[in-house]
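#help-structures
NK: newbie question, is this the right format to request a structure? protein is Cell division protein ZapA
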Amino acid sequence: MLFRGVDGLVDKKNKVLIKINGQEYPIVGLEPKDYLLKVGNYVDEKMEEVRGANQRLSTSMIAVLTSINMADELLKLEEKLEKEQGKYEEPLRKFEEMKNKCENLESALSRLEEQNQELKRTNGNLEKFKEKYETETLELKQEVKNQEEENKKAEDIINELQNKLFENQIKLVQARKQLEKHQKDS
């Protein structure tokens, strides 16, 4: 809080007249006028409390004791504030850790979603390749089957020709024997 006397320089000053311990004081400050009046009333009440406890004190003694009491209040409140802030430091630290973990998890999730999309595209390509492979495999199987049928036909023809060759060889052997016999007889 910054208060300056009437002669002090303040950029955006608010000026109020405050009555403390029966005497008026002009106060100038940066805070709003209502706040300046509230502060003045608080000081006046505290001085009244000190004077009420001991009527024989001088005004300067009342002011000093009031300042001591207000300093005591301030220090106790600061200590209480530090303790209260201490209570929140660990939860705030944990909150920040959790927030960082959450951000990291969101980032990891985003990367996993991108990888998932890439895998889906790859899977789609693999499915197309599989379909093409299956189609080509069926075509090749049909070609093999056709070739096997042609080979079977060729084997049948070869077997038939071999049989005819064998029969002709037998006939040739028989014809030679007849020719030899015929030559011997003649």
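mod (FA): yep, format's fine, and the tokens are attached above. Residues 3-57 form one domain.
NK: thank you!
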